[in-house]
Amino acid sequence: MSLSAYLILSAVLFLFGAFGMMERRNMVGLLISIELMLNAASINFMAFNHFLYPGTVTGQIMTLFVIGLAAAEATLFLAIVFAVYRHYRSINVERVDHLRG
Amino acid sequence: MMLQLLPEFAALGALLILFFVTLGNNVSDRAARWITLALSGFVLVAAIAAQDQSGLMFANSYKLDTYSQFFKILMAFGLMANALLGWPLRSVPTAQRSEYYFLFFAAGLAMMLLASAFSFLVLYVAMELLSYSLYTMVGMRRARTESIESSVKYIIIGATASAIGLFGVSYIYGATGSLNFGALIDSLKGTTTHSALLMPGLVMVLSSFLFKLAAFPFHAWAPDAYETASSPVAMFLASVSKLAGIAFLFRLVYMVKPYMPEFETVIGILALITMTFGNLVAFRQTSVKRLFAYSSIAQAGYLMLGMIGFGDSAPVAVVFYSAIYLLMNLVVFAVVLELERYGEDPTLASFQGLYKRNALMAMALLVALFSLAGVPPLAGFFGKWLLFSSAAQGGHIWFVAFAILNSVLSLYYYLFLVKAAYFGDVPKEAVSLDKGGSRIAILVTTIAIALLGLYPRVLTEYLTGLNFPRSLLP
User: Fold this and answer.
1) Subunit contact A41:B169, Cβ cutoff 8 A
2) Is there a domain that residue B307 lies in?
C-alpha cells in the first residue's frame, strides 16, 4: 500500500461526508456524515505520519485529539438532537425549520 | 510558567470554582452572579498583570507576545462587561443560569488560548472548546423553542466548518511535517514551489475561520443564533466571541500574506461580499437582534479588509478597531437588554420614543450607532479610517472605495433606529426604564467611545509602542 492509496481513501471518505451533509435530512445522518469527515482527516494524519515522517508522533497525537474531540462533539450533538425532538417531535431538518436562516 | 499563563490559569480556576460551587444546585442566583463578577474581575487583573509576558511555550506551540497579551486584556474586559451588563439573565431559564456562567468562563478560556495559539493542535482544541460552549449557550432560552433550532443549525454548520478546517490541517501537516506555525512559515519561505497540498490546506483552514467570524459564505448561522438566543448570549456572541476569531485569523493571515499574495485578493473579495451582504440584508430586518447580527457580519467585513492592509499599519488598525467594536456592541446590546424587561425580543417598535422614556439610554444608543456607521468624530470613524487607509496603503484602493460606499449605506439602517428612538411616540405598554443597574456601565462605555474618537492618539500610540509587527512575525 502506498501513501496515495490512503490519500485517495481519505478524500473519498471526506467527499462522502460532504455529500451526506448536503443530502441527508435526518440529524443522526448528519452526525454520521460529520464523523466521516473527521475520520477522513484522521486517516490523513496517520498516513502522512507513517509514510513521510516516520519516527515522529505528531500525526498520531493529533489523531488521538481528534478522536477525543469527536466523541465530545457527538455527545453534545445528540443532546441537542434530543432537545429538538422534545420540542418538535421530529429530527428531520426540514420539519425543524421555523427560522428564516 | 504559572506567572506567564496567569490569565489562562485565572480563567481555568474561575471555571473550576463555578463548576464545583454550582454543582449542588444550592447556590442562589444572586450568589452565583457575584461570584462570576468577582472571578471575571480577577481574570481581568490577571490579564493586565501578564501583559509584558512573552515567549514560546510547550514545544513552540503556544506564543505569548504583545499582540496576544493585549487581546487577552480586551477579552477579559469583555468578559467582565458581559457579566456586568448581561445581568439579570431574564431570558435564560433559572435552572440553567449556573451552567451559563460555567460555560461563560469555558468560552473565555478558549478565547485566550486562541489568541496565543501557535500550532494547529492548540488551535483545534481551543476552537472546539469555544464552539461547544457557544452551541450550548445559544440553546439556553426560556419561552422560545426556536432557540434549540438555531442551536442545532449552529452545531451542524459549526461542526462541518471545523471538519473542513481539520482536513485542511491534515494537508498542511502532510506538506510541512509539523503542526507548528513556525514550520509552516519556514516551508513557505524555503521553496518557491511548495508542495501542492499546502494551498488547499490553507484555504480549508481559512474557510473554517470565516465561519467563526460569520463571514460570507459561512454566515447563515449568525442571524438565527442572535435572534433566538437570549440577549446576554447574543451580546456574548457579538462582542467577545468575535474577538477570538479576529485575533487568530489576523495572526495567520499576517504571517502567510507575504508569501502568498493570492491570499490577499481572496480575503479582500470575501471581505467586500461579506460587508455588502450584511449591509443589504440588514435593511429589511424588523427584529432588532437580527439587524445587529447582520450589522456585525458587515463589521467583520471591514475588519477583514483591514487584515490585508499594509504590513506596518495593519496590526494597529485591526487591534484598534477590535477594541472599538467590542465597546460599540456592548453598548448596543446593553440597551437591547434594558428594553426587554421580561425576556421578550425587542423589535424596531420597542425602540419608539426611547428618548422620552430615558434620555441617557437614547444618547448612548445614538453614540454607539453613529460610531458603528462611522460618523466623525466618534471612535468608529477613526477606527474605520485606520482600517481603510491601511488597506489603501497595501494597494487595495478599489476595495477601499467600495468599503466606503458600504459604510455610507449602513448609515441608513442605523438611522432608522435612531429615528425611532428620538422621534417616535412612546408605546402604551412600554415598560418603565427608570431603574437599571447597568446605567453607569452604559454611560462609561459611551463616554469611552466618544473620547476615543476625539483623542484616538492615546490608544494608537500605546498600540504602536507595543510593536505588533515584530511580535506577529516569527
Assistant:
1) yes
2) yes
